[in-house]
Amino acid sequence: MSLIAGPPAAESPAAAPPEHNVTGVDYADRCHLPYAGPLIDIHAHVTVTGPDDPPGPPLGSTGPGSSTAPAEVMLDAAGEFGVVHTVSMCLPDQIPVLRDRFGDRLSFNGWISKHADEPEDAAYRLLDRFLEQGVRMLKFWSAPRGRPWGMVVDAPWRIEVLRRARAAGLRVVMVHVADPDVLFRTRYADARTFRTKDDQYPPFERLMVEFPDVTWIGAHLGGDPEHPDHLERLLERYPNLYLDTSGTKWLVREASARAGAIRSLVCRYPDRFLFGTDLVTRYPLPRDHYVSRYWCQRTLWESGWEGPSPIADPEHAPGPGCTPTPTLRGLGLPRDVLEKLYFGNASRILHNA
Ligand SMILES: [Zn+2]
Question: Torsion angle of alpha carbons 233, 238, 241, 245, nearest 10°?
């Protein structure tokens, strides 16, 4: 997820197009999507949500007016696109509510973080609360913007969380390790604070070396869809590393821009990729917000569709004469590869977790 998901674009009287469909594409048109089997979304944030949610993490709330109704809207759209199971990151106290409502359609990933001024024990108590809820997977969010408050992958308190989680039998950890290249030229230009993009990886690699029996999931194509050669080196070096496809705007922009190389990589390592969206259930979002992400993800991986992405992308800097959104170029993955990426690989990991 983006650390702070902004509110949906305001609808002005001039009827500015919504962020989820700036090109006016017909999301009901799905003739270009040949895959008819099931999908598992390994990376999403299904929450109990309402009008009093805080603007940033922790996501969702159980405050006045909150409910599971928006999650139902999201999961109904998911079902329309064949998603039969979603792994959600949410607060531990939301898990029983969501489990009651959605049963086997959801499982849960425990988001382990703490504020800089909190003692390390805060992270260990959070782990305990997730373990009490039967969570079998953890998330270490370590985007560069978290560095100033100590959210690096190999912070000592995270290593201790990992030791305790392993002692409890947990063996799957998802890591958000880096952000788009474009942000290192803008938001993260101060390398003394944020370090370079290359600098983000050694802490992650250190943990993969020290905990080789953990199944590692690199969120957002390992944080580096811009460099498929780097992803290949990581896949070669760490046999327990998987990469998820979540982060639709980022993946649409950067995988499309090097469609041949990404397609070749996925086809050569078909057992190592997992479908994910990074969709966040939020109280005011319209159904088509969710639809847009499922539609674009499936269009990217399985079709030969090509055109301007329907989703507004603030990270896209169009050159003269270019379309305002990046080009979405479908990779047209073969059916046997899609079956693994969409379902088989995640099914194996969740079954063994
Ligand atoms: Zn996320």
Answer: 0
